[in-house]
């Protein structure tokens, strides 16, 4: 989710720039080299002499400064620690996840009781046009947005909207930032450099497109927000003269990405804890016909829980005892490593594949030949690939696909070339490896779908009796903690690690992996090139062209009002845009946009 721009000292993987020199030279060219190299990358992060390339200014922009405001609880007694030391094959059953949400409620209560930091850090220009909320501090930054922590203003006209939220996260997008940039990442992905428009025309179309993209994100987020505790809740949307405000539930822990960097890797229990919650979120989205398309550790946010140090920290053979951070005790039904409830965020690349009302694919029109109609199962499988990459990375600490050369990396992703490299994978169970293999299957027909993954034996490994006992104990401990707040007991976060070359390289690997999968999906769906238009058509249908109006009842997002934001598209007809797109695609290669500062080209 977080931006990897020059301010953060991004590694230019493609051009092997100065920061890449921190990564050990690649001396081999076989399939294993990548994993050795990436492991070194992550070890660099943890090593005491690793160089932080983020300058002090950029550090002030990082998104992990939430820990100063998180509620605090007391430490555990030795007896409790012993209870929890009794680890083993433990995991979460679906039913147990509800207890995680009880835990979250507790923290929400604590926030307000403590009444911490309700005064703004300073005057924010974004506050001037914002209604109903008071901005307190900046907590994150995306490529096109700033994210703030805010509190509802009491007695505001829309106070009813926020009654469940004592604090919110507000993603603020400045309209002028959009006017020169097209944030529709997939359009950039498919489209060649802009055609020769005159300046006004270009600016106009760019603005329109950007607004579409913001509204699309809002509509999809709103559509998926209900009935799933593992999706960051949508609260409200405001548009002012200068800004768009996307108001959502605040998650106090930050990104799972930072936790992987900090802990080097997660135990199988903790990996299962995180991935199961992600799977529940994806199950919910897929059941609504919506595909996320940008699954990565940066888009997984979490609520922090008490960190309980292990009495005897377990080390893997591959660990450096000097630098491996103890993950602490894993408590079934609660979490571990300071990670409690996990929620999926960032719907900027999400896409509706089929309407739950009609079960017909979106974006298709009457005259489209059956062979170019999207097969929704393929589209959904993009998310399963993303889940596989996240699971692999959590288990060993480096991503499945990596290469400094962008072309080689792309090839490896397309061919599904990855290994369970020794010694890092030696102590990881066959069950976990099997789950990864079923997710990182190149052929989408053979790749797990979400139901198959949720039924995976490794994901469901637990002993009911023991789990129940542990769950009861965990609940008792939570109750004790409620009366023993105000002592800091969360894991320290060294936010400088997040912008090390290693961490940036890991982010890039995910962005590229997801992008390649999206391209593969579109290639599969679009043997006649027309598929590249599907998203445009979809928007046109949903957002109000004359064609859309006539199809309003069958193609709008579930539960959403077509006219919710009074958006009217002022663009060309589908046919004209199809012709333009065909013309452009035939003439050009595609380029990868999501990594600012990089010039990467793909031959289609
Ligand atoms: N609901 C939230 N609770 C807590 N932190 C959040 C929340 N939403 C976003 N953030 C923080 O702000 C950062 C940027 O948010 P987000 O990724 O949504 O912006 P973005 O513009 O979509 O980024 P990009 O497009 O570059 O991926 C996140 O990485 C996260 O650290």
UniProtKB/TrEMBL annotation:
GO terms for biological process: cellular response to oxidative stress; osmosensory signaling pathway; regulation of meiotic nuclear division. Signal peptide: none annotated. It holds the Pfam family Pkinase. The keyword Kinase applies. Residues 89-100 have a biased composition (Low complexity). One of its GO terms (cellular component) is cytoplasm. It is an enzyme of class 2 (transferase). The keyword Ligase does not apply. Residues 133-459 form the Protein kinase domain. Residues 102-113 have a biased composition (Acidic residues). Keywords: ATP-binding, Calmodulin-binding, Kinase, Nucleotide-binding, Serine/threonine-protein kinase, Transferase. This is non-specific serine/threonine protein kinase. SMART domains: S_TKc. Residues 1-113, 190-211 are annotated as: Disordered. ATP binds at residue 171. Its EC number is 2.7.11.1. It catalyses: L-threonyl-[protein] + ATP = O-phospho-L-threonyl-[protein] + ADP + H(+); L-seryl-[protein] + ATP = O-phospho-L-seryl-[protein] + ADP + H(+). The gene is NDAI0G05190. Residues 14-41, 48-76 have a biased composition (Polar residues). GO terms for molecular function: ATP binding; calmodulin binding; protein serine/threonine kinase activity.
